[in-house]
Amino acid sequence: EDQVTQSPEALRLQEGESSSLNCSYTVSGLRGLFWYRQDPGKGPEFLFTLYSAGEEKEKERLKATLTKKESFLHITAPKPEDSATYLCAVRPSYNFNKFYFGSGTKLNVKP
Amino acid sequence: DAGITQSPRHKVTETGTPVTLRCHQTENHRYMYWYRQDPGHGLRLIHYSYGVKDTDKGEVSDGYSVSRSKTEDFLLTLESATSSQTSVYFCAISGEGAQETQYFGPGTRLLVL
Fold first, then answer.
1. Residue A83 in 3-state DSSP?
2. Cis preceding linkage at B18, omega within 30
3. Considering CB atoms only, which of A41, A49, A104 is closest to B101?
4. Residue to test with chain B: of A39, A97, A103, A105, most B Cβ within 10 A
5. Nearest CA to CA, how far is A23 from chain B (Å)?
6. In whole angstroms, how far apart are CA B17 and each of A109, B10, B62, B85, B108?
7. pLDDT by residue (tens digit) across A48-89?
8. Shortest alpha-carbon distance between residue B80 and chain A (Å)
9. Alpha carbons B24 and A37: distance in angstroms, whole number
10. Mean pLDDT of all residues in B36-42
11. Is the pLDDT score of B86 beyond 80?
């Protein structure tokens, strides 16, 4: 069964304290893995797409990496404005009509 | 920002009434999706469309129907609303090849009394 699990469920950091969010996936063939950021009351906002193990993408303080079983979203020196819920999704290669989402990690960065 | 709008943005209705939510895109993308988002469940797929008049069920389709008569519009209908359908509903779109990333609309907050 295709499954996406994100950990931790919630993470509280001090401003400047770097950390990583985890997305573990089980899927029969990966077409793509996607990271999103969601602010309260808004729709998910696209961050990154990763396609193959070893691939890395960066944007400002965020860096996403991918292995055959999991992806990490590394946050370097976070700021309070990075506070949000971060969602991970996979698109299987056998049925690329669908995306499977994890439950998200709620990040709170304190000044 | 991807050109996706949802209407209405907020709606309060009573149990047993039909409700229709609309998603409109200006990107000419092939795929359109309806999700619901509830605390503790994340995003769950209700229905999706892979072309005009081509739709299929997602994991939580009971009590919902969809229609897509034009590329740009995807309608979600709650045939007889129940309190368990109180949720936030998101529409999403995706294309093919280099445009296959899924983009989301702003959401519709639905309260069924």
1. coil
2. no
3. A49
4. A97
5. 14
6. 43, 16, 16, 12, 17
7. 999 999 999 999 999 999 999 999 999 999 999 999 999 999
8. 26
9. 22
10. 88
11. yes
